[in-house]
Amino acid sequence: xxNQEKLEKGIGTKEIEALKPAKVKIEKIEIVEVPEVKADxxxxxxxxPDQEDEIHISRVKYLKRDNLxxxxxxxxxxxxxxxxxxxxxxxxxxxxxxxxLKEMEGKEAYTVTDKKGYLEFKxx
Length: 124
Prior knowledge:
Layout: H1 3-7, E1 23-34, E2 39-47, E3 55-57, E4 59-64, E5 67-72, E6 74-75, H2 88-96, E7 108-113, E8 119-123
Parallel strand pairs: 4-8
Antiparallel strand pairs: 1-2, 1-7, 2-3, 2-6, 4-5, 7-8
């Protein structure tokens, strides 16, 4: 479509259909720099059963001190250079029963919807 045609388009009336929570397969793991916060975040490319293309998930909902908590999969290291023990990423890795990020590839995980309607991993 020509850019000029796009400039002439109006606002639609149809909602974009959101993906429903489902069991997904983690295809690929990437560490992405988030410049706004000067930190790295883990982004998982996953195959969702209702979507032909891969989608990306970088958040998890997990149990912390008997409360459900939602967090980004931030990559932080402890003083030994290992993934921080009490981080959301570590909790998700323990839930998947993996020791390294690379081992997450090929694993299946369930998703839930966050407050904004986006999918995040379920780890509880």
